[in-house]
């Protein structure tokens, strides 16, 4: 649906990064990136744990993206399952 609206969507996107002088090729895999600007992390759990937010924040920092969405399909309603995470604001 996002693609039909003209947005560029990459799924299961491998990301390489450098950390303390070491190179990690395909060190992580993003669930979804929209227009190269927004990282979307998908979950289906009864309750989000603090580690889920930290995971997305780490992805934002390593990719220098500013905005991420954490979507939990296990929430009672989708409204409760959408969390907006920002980097360096």
Q: How would you briefly describe this protein structure?
A:
With 89 residues, this protein is an alpha+beta fold. It is 20% helix and 46% strand.
Give the secondary structure arrangement, pairings included.
Elements: E1 9-19, E2 22-34, E3 38-43, H1 50-63, E4 67-72, H2 78-81, E5 82-86
Parallel strand pairs: 3-4
Antiparallel strand pairs: 1-2, 2-3, 4-5
Q: Could you describe the 3D structure shown?
A:
It is built from two helices and five strands. With 89 residues, the protein is of the alpha+beta class. Strand 1 and strand 2 form a beta hairpin.
Give structural attributes.
89 residues; alpha+beta; five-stranded mixed beta sheet
- State the shape: globular
Give the quaternary arrangement of the chains. single chain
Instruction: Name the strands of the widest sheet in spatial order.
Output: 1-2-3-4-5
Uncertain segments are: none
- Give the ordered list of helices and strands: EEEHEHE
Report the average pLDDT across residues: 94
How far apart, in Å, are the first and last alpha carbons?
29 Å
Helical fraction equals 10-25%
For the biggest sheet, the summary is:
5 strands, mixed
Approximately how much beta-strand content do the residues carry?
Answer: over 45%
Number of helices: 2
């Amino acid at each position: 649906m996002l693609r039909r609206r003209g947005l560029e969507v990459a799924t299961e996107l491998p990301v390489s990064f450098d950390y303390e002088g070491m190179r990690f090729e395909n060190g992580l895999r993003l669930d979804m990136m929209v227009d190269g600007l927004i990282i979307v992390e998908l979950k289906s759990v009864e309750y989000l744990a603090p580690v889920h937010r930290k995971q997305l924040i780490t992805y934002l920092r390593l990719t220098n993206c500013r905005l991420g969405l954490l979507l939990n399909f296990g929430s009672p309603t989708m409204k409760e399952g959408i969390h907006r995470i920002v980097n360096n604001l």
